[in-house]
Amino acid sequence: MPTISLCMIVKNEEDHIGRCLASVADLVDEIIIVDTGSTDRTVPIVREYTDRVHHFRWIDDFAAARNYSFSLAEKEYILWLDADDVFEEPDRIKLASLKKTLEPSVDAVNMVYNLAFDEFGQVSASIRRNRLVKRSCGFLWHGPVHEYLEVGGSVRTTDIAVTHRALYHDSGRNLRIYENRLARRETFSPRDLFYFANELKDHRMYNRAIHYYEEFLGTGNGWIEDNISACGRLADCFHALGDEKRELDSVFRSFLYASPRAEFCCRLGYVFLRKKEYRTAAYWYEAALQAGKHTDSWALTHVACSTWLPHLQLCVCYDRLGEHELAHRHNETVLEYRPGDRQALANKTYLDGVLARKEEAPAD
């Protein structure tokens, strides 16, 4: 059975770190924590789980800190987590099983990363990450911020999930790093341009975000999923600025990179729904359901856009078109996904009444 080093970088994570380590401590063979300057109880809490606590002077470079943590590992494989990540019990069981069955030929293992949840506790956004890597391969992290782990060789895909359970985060940290790099006149890679634009958008600096998204797309060297995401985020910026034409142009621009994704189809459906062009809106929501069958799991996946949301909106469209049986069928599908959805339950009461009255009506 292979041995595993857990390598983490932390700073002021007293509210998260104990929960994270408790979820994985018995599944790994050593825990290496690199602290980058905590002033709270993070280090004392960590020492309850390991004496392998090291310190790294923070230089605004996440990759450098993570690579340092990896350099301290001594076991066959390295697992990495953030302090606000956990393995829920079903995934703990799967990880334990993986450890027993992992073939020595595997160089890296990717896992699902559950990022957000709806009000019913169901996953609403997820992505994939390479989480477990063979130490002897010497894989390295790249990028001062929004860093990524570059892997190769034999990669195994699993359904094991790491769950993100953040209580809070420093919303300005990444933007500050990028602004400092910009002030030093550093050259930004296409990836840097994309993530800098994301930070600007998240801080509602829409015009600056648009500038850097355009610069990113203009390089022609972005990862296809980032290109598609940039189009969606451009649409968000133009929507916030009240520019509907350029919002739609950005949505259709995404089609240049790949077949329409469910998220974009839902966005188009909503545009036409607002215009009361119900047949066209229904077309795009039906397209979202078809697009959802071809989702690339390495991309950020908004689960609602390929599952219950199109059905909910199709219920509205077909009701407005007078096709109540079809509206009812789509609404029932929503309830299969979300039995407690208040809007779908209200729709059911309304549509049951409409269909009952139709059945009672005398034939012409």
Fold topology:
Blueprint (H helix, E strand, L loop, with lengths): L3 E7 L6 H6 L7 E6 L6 H5 L6 E3 L6 H10 L5 E4 L4 E2 L2 H13 L6 E10 L5 E12 L6 E2 L5 E2 L5 E10 L8 H11 L6 H13 L3 H14 L4 H17 L3 H10 L8 H13 L3 H14 L9 E2 L5 H13 L3 H14 L4 H19 L4
Parallel strand pairs: 1-2, 1-4, 2-3, 6-10
Antiparallel strand pairs: 4-7, 5-10, 6-7, 7-11, 8-9
State Rg.
Answer: 24 Å
The largest sheet is: 9 strands, mixed
Q: How large is the share of residues in beta strands?
A: 15-25%
Q: What is the N-to-C succession of helices and strands?
A: EHEHEHEEHEEEEEHHHHHHHEHHH
Write the CATH homologous superfamily of the largest domain.
Spore Coat Polysaccharide Biosynthesis Protein SpsA, Chain A
What percent of the residues sit in helical stretches (DSSP H or I)? Answer: 40-55%
Tally of separate domains:
3
Could you say which structural class the secondary elements and strand pairing correspond to? alpha/beta
Through-space gap between termini? 76 Å
Overall description:
The chain is α/β, with parallel strands linked by helices and 364 residues long. The protein has three domains: 4-164, Spore Coat Polysaccharide Biosynthesis Protein SpsA, Chain A (Alpha-Beta Complex); 171-258, Serine Threonine Protein Phosphatase 5, Tetratricopeptide repeat (Alpha Horseshoe); 273-364, Serine Threonine Protein Phosphatase 5, Tetratricopeptide repeat. The chain is 47% helix and 16% strand. It is built from 14 helices and eleven strands. The chain has helices spanning 17-22, 42-46, 62-71, 89-101, 173-183, 190-202, 206-219, 224-240, 244-253, 262-274, 278-291, 308-320, 324-337, 342-360, and strands at 4-10, 30-35, 53-55, 77-80, 85-86, 108-117, 123-134, 141-142, 148-149, 155-164, 301-302. The strands form two sheets. Strands 1, 2, 3, 4, 5, 6, 7, 10 and 11 form a nine-stranded mixed β-sheet that branches. A hairpin with a 5-residue loop joins strand 6 (108-117) and strand 7 (123-134). Helix 6 runs antiparallel to helix 7 (206-219), helix 6 runs parallel beside helix 8 and helix 10 runs parallel beside helix 12 (308-320). It is globular. The chain starts with a strand and ends with a helix. The model has no long low-confidence stretch (mean pLDDT 95).
